[in-house]
Amino acid sequence: MSDRREFMGILAKVTMGAALTGADLALLSTPAVATPTPARVGATEVGQLADLTKVLWVQEKQLGGGAVREAVIAQLGWARGLLEAGATDRVGRELRGVVSDLLALAGRASSDVGLTGTALRYLGQAVAMAQEVGEPVRAALALGQIGRIHTRDGNSGQARDVLNLAMVTADRTRSSGLNALLLTSQARAAAQARTPDQAVTYLARAEDALSSTDTAAEPTGFDRTLFASEAGRVYTILTTQSPIYASQAIDTLTASTAQLASGRAKRRAFALTELATCHLHGGDSATGIHIGHQVVCMAATIRSRKLTEHLQLLRTATRANPSPAAKELNHRLAGMG
Hints:
By secondary structure, the chain is mainly alpha-helical. It has three domains: 1-134; 135-214, Alpha Horseshoe (Serine Threonine Protein Phosphatase 5, Tetratricopeptide repeat), CATH 1.25.40; 240-337. It contains 16 helices and no strands. This is Transcriptional regulator.
């Protein structure tokens, strides 16, 4: 019972907008705190689960998937119990929509710690549940995440196929922001596949889509700052293939990182990794090395295998630089593997 009271206390904190502590996340990682489930589910339980899911998403963006994955999976067990309880049709649909979000987060967190197969299974379940209750935005977002996993793993053909499915699903939403987000994913896949012209074309289409929407009203939250961050990542990939893109990448990343919200520590670490890499490729070693040391300090507070892997971009750039300062940074990066 004490666990249950503590769990309800966490839900109260979430409802009031308070941040979760490490102890809160540890408690949420214990399945027992989420029992017993009620015999009947109402709007209150769905609202609590939705609020908790939002907070866990925020924590993932700040601390990385490794910091929240156990808590997400534990709460997913509770949420699945709620699906077995009685509910009105409306509450049942809303509950399935929230569970789809939680499944997508479980997929994202699993991917972030390197569990690709598990991530794909969770995301596939998120797509299925979203489709079941007629939620194309949720379905398209989960499909987009699947496409990005395939892109990162070098499966360009599979990435393209899944992202095309996501675009078809997104067309039903009339969400320009969602289309822009998926087009940037297409751009990243094209850059990884070494088709720079196609990558730049996708970015232009994404920017056009975003310019025709009211980003404040977008269900995805994908705004011009996040677009610039995504574009910077695409130009970074292209810069590692040809230094002619370095200037564009640096300008884009410099502007976007200055505008990123403070709660997006993980994205900022990714972006600064890219910015340091591009400065090194562009010939400004001093700036690249300075930013690189900043990133190493940031990365120590973020539990993300993806970030550790992403730092290899910077490590590769330091290897190509003969200066003692670059060798020192390379040594620090080597210690993070």
